[in-house]
């Protein structure tokens, strides 16, 4: 395989690292808001700190992407298919930013400082703003469902390329 | 013979699983607390309350035990809330079995502390799922409550407290307990399990008033006339005490430290004040205080968040507009 039909090593590492992180974040989020078990606090603390990490990673990833040449999409794809593919990728980036930002703002307005792996704390509002908390709390939930839907679509498309179209799209990220 | 062994072996297992209450979620818990008629925009528990403000005057006695900056000699302001247990924001003050004090300290943008305390020193049960059954029994009526306590010997300390408890005529004359234990962590990283109580400095006889807002009116008048003071007293566990069971008190005679005074000097109706917007989740902790593994304490965060989420959303949608909570 030549360089241009495969993503660079840094892009592949960031892609799979973040995939694992974001999927565990989604699972942790959905579990922890229901649970009354003693581990809830532990998972919640990890969720917030890893969410901050995810924000840093997606920023690094975006910068890295803008600096690299991407493998071209297969020529056989119609115009609308490439448009949807590209739009869905930008939407993914958008959601990957919006998730941690809404999570942080929800906690900010609720007056809850974020402990990041016992290393430092992110500031919270000095005065609680319940309306803004409500806004970002609901947004965090809705965006999470949008992200789950988009990830499902993304995985579906990758498998479709690999098994049905039998092209190079999935391999270019492996 | 083999079958007998099997039965003997499995019997305790079945016994335990029959005793273990079914697990409930935070949503189920809050559904039960709010009951059939939720009051939009209000807390699903301790719905009726009044905002207070004041300061903690630390004497420095606890500074060697915890890094939390508010224990250094000096004063830290707080927003507080005095409330009664129950889901109804207009319930009669004097009918409630439990009275409460909640505090929110904002030492800085990165160091905040929320405390929510009740009049009993212990819980009747030690885990949230059994607590759910206790609330179900309370909602079902006196016969169910009797049945519940008859089958839950762990409630004995709570019942002993309830039998001798005399409600006073003022929020100012009650003792408010952390119930759950926490760890103090000092600058050397040493950890000490503690419980605390806000102890009153006045005695007020039970009131013969019948007004639904008797306690709110009393405390408003009292604070307007003079500051209301509590001593913040910490009890230190020793190595033989269990910090993870909030239905059992530690033996009398444990070392106690008075960390300073909680001084109330302002009050306002809850919807007019700053306290309504706050989720007094006791797991919002500053550096120098840590949560124990107490299953009751650990269950509180998710339940408080669910109640807060519901009422915040309702408030955003305008549920409290025009409401003055009289
Ligand atoms: C990639 C980043 C993130 C993902 C994928 C994610 C995902 C989720 C999901 C799926 C939920 C459950 C939402 C629901 O069903 O309503 C949730 C809840 C939550 N998230 Fe995140 N999250 C992320 C980042 C963050 C960050 C950075 C913070 C805070 C600093 C945060 C704080 C929270 C909190 C506090 C809750 C629970 C709120 C409650 O109990 O009411 N999240 N998250
Ligand atoms: C599993 C155990 C418990 C559950 C599920 C629970 C649940 C709740 C909920 C849902 C709220 C309303 C939160 C809000 O909307 O802001 C609340 C408030 C409160 N709880 Fe608990 N609670 C538990 C144990 C305790 C204990 C042990 C104490 C006392 C030490 C306590 C004291 C309070 C107080 C004082 C408030 C009112 C705080 C305020 O003024 O806003 N709770 N509780």
CATH class (first level) name of chain B: Mainly Beta
Oligomerization state: heterodimer
| Average pLDDT taken over every residue of chain B | 93
Number of domains of chain A: 1
CATH architecture of chain A: Up-down Bundle
Q: Which consecutive residue ranges of chain A, at least 5 long each, have pLDDT under 50?
A: none
Number of strands of chain B: 10
Count of helical segments of chain A? Answer: 4
What is the CA-CA span between the terminal residues of chain B? 71 Å
Major β-sheet of chain B, in short? 10 strands, antiparallel
Largest interface: A-B, 31 and 39 residues
The backbone outline of chain B, from C-alpha atoms, is: globular
Helix content of chain A: 55-70%
CATH class of chain A: Mainly Alpha
The CATH architecture of chain B can be named as Beta Barrel
Morphology call of chain A: elongated
Any chance you could write out the topology, listing elements then pairs?
The complex is a heterodimer of chains A (174) and B (326).
Chain A: H1 9-32, H2 40-67, H3 79-109, E1 114-116, E2 120-122, H4 130-165
Antiparallel strand pairs in A: 1-2
Helix pairs in contact in A: 1-2, 2-3, 3-4
Chain B: H1 2-19, H2 26-34, E1 48-58, E2 74-84, E3 99-106, E4 112-118, H3 128-140, H4 142-150, H5 156-164, E5 176-177, E6 182-185, E7 191-200, H6 214-225, E8 228-236, E9 256-269, E10 289-291, H7 295-316
Antiparallel strand pairs in B: 1-2, 1-9, 2-3, 3-4, 5-7, 6-7, 6-10, 7-8, 8-9
The structure holds protoporphyrin IX containing FE (2 copies).
């Amino acid at each position: 395989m030549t360089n241009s039909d495969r993503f660079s090593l840094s892009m592949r590492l960031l892609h799979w690292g973040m995939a694992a992180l974001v999927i565990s974040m989604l699972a942790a989020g959905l579990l922890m808001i229901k649970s009354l078990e003693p581990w809830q606090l532990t998972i919640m603390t990890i969720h917030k700190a890893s969410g901050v990490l995810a924000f840093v990673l997606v920023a690094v990833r975006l910068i890295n992407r803008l600096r690299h040449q991407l493998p071209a999409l297969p020529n056989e794809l119609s115009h609308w298919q490439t448009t949807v593919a590209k739009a869905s990728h930008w939407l993914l980036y958008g959601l990957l930013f919006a998730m941690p930002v809404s999570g942080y703002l929800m906690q900010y307005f609720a007056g809850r400082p974020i402990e990041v792996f016992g290393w430092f704390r992110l500031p919270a509002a000095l005065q609680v703003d319940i309306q803004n908390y409500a806004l970002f709390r609901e947004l965090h939930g809705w965006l999470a469902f949008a992200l789950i839907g988009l990830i499902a679509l993304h995985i579906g498309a990758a498998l479709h390329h690999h098994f049905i179209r039998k092209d190079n799209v999935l391999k270019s990220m492996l | 013979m083999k079958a007998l062994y099997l039965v003997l072996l499995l019997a305790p297992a079945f016994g335990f699983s029959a005793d273990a209450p079914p697990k409930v979620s935070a949503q189920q818990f809050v559904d039960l607390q709010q009951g059939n008629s939720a009051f939009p925009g209000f807390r699903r528990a301790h719905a009726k309350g009044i905002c207070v403000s004041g300061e903690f005057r630390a004497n420095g006695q606890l500074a060697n035990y915890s890094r939390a900056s508010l224990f250094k000699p000096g004063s830290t302001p707080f927003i507080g809330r005095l409330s009664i247990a129950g889901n109804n924001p207009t319930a009669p003050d004097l009918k409630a079995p439990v009275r409460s004090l909640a505090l929110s300290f904002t030492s800085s943008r990165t160091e905040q502390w929320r405390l929510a305390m009740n009049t009993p020193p212990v819980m009747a049960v030690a885990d949230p799922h059994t607590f759910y059954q206790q609330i179900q029994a309370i909602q079902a009526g006196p016969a169910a409550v009797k049945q519940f306590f008859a089958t839950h010997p762990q409630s004995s300390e709570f019942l002993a407290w309830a039998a001798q408890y005399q409600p006073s005529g003022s929020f100012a004359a009650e003792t408010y307990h952390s119930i759950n234990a926490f760890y103090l962590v000092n600058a050397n990283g040493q950890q000490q399990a503690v419980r605390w109580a806000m102890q009153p400095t006045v005695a007020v006889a039970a009131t013969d008033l019948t007004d639904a807002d008797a306690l709110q009116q009393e405390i408003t008048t009292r604070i307007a006339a003079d500051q209301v003071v509590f001593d913040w007293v910490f009890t230190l566990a020793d190595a033989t005490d269990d910090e993870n069971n909030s239905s059992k008190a530690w033996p009398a005679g444990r070392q106690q430290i008075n960390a300073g005074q909680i001084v109330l000097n302002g009050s306002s109706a809850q919807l007019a004040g700053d306290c309504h917007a706050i989720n007094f989740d006791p797991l919002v902790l500053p550096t120098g205080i840590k949560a124990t593994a107490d299953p009751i304490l650990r269950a509180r965060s998710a339940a408080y968040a669910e109640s807060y989420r519901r009422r915040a959303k309702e408030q955003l949608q305008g549920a409290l507009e025009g409401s003055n909570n009289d």
